[in-house]
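Weekly structure sync, notes
Attendees: PL (lead), two postdocs, one rotation student
Agenda item 3: pending single-chain targets
PL asked that the sequence for the first pending target be pasted directly into the notes so everyone works from the same version. It is reproduced below exactly as submitted, 249 residues in total.
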Amino acid sequence: MIFRQLFEPVSSTYTYLLACPETGEAALIDPVMPAWQRDLQVVNSLGLKLVMTIDTHIHADHITSASMLRREAGSRIAVPALDALPCADVPMEDGLPLQIGGLRIDPMHTPGHTDNHFALVAGDRVFTGDALLIDGCGRTDFQSGDSQVLYETVRGKLFGLPGETLVYPAHDYQGRWVSSIAQEKQRNPRLGGDRTLEEFVELMANLNLPYPKFIDYAVPGNKACGECPPDLPDHLRQYCHEMAESPQG
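Predicted structure, written out during the meeting:
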């Protein structure tokens, strides 16, 4: 498998490039609007053809570049079937593999951060979206989030993967790139060790986090598979403008 981890600094989002070395077919997981040209440059520099973009869920902190990449590269858009988005080409279902050339990607329904959230398993790695972060997890206080469901998802599904499975989250805010299932099971301060359901629900209920500043624009934009709103305030325009520079993770 050809693999690259790319970082978009405005929303601290990781985008992942996966490709089949035999066919040259490639997919991007959670591509971000400001970085679409960067992503295509990476695809082209490796001599690959982008055939699919995959969004783990309807994001609240950035707008996907799925529609832009479909227009520019002809890639198909895969999103959770449960969201029933008319703009999607591939309705993603639990246990129904996505095939990228000879590369198999297995979608896993992982609700809790959002009700229709998915993780993606590819070989020895899992792309956990916002459900499981390195030493953390996604919020559960909006978009049909549910702390009890997230606890059951992470500990019952994701922690059921082999311990050596590499964990690649959709975000990290401290410069970390990768973890493992074994590490998160042991030391994740929210969900690891002997953390009980009751303790987790109480912890999540008392985070006192601010209202997401981009959610009112990101959610409708992502329900359209990546449309920047025309009325975006000046202080939020960086979420849709192309980035001048973006380091790779």
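Discussion points:
- The helical segments are 36-45, 66-73, 147-156, 181-187, 197-205, 215-223.
- The chain has one domain: 2-207+215-222.
Action: rotation student to compare against the earlier draft before next sync.
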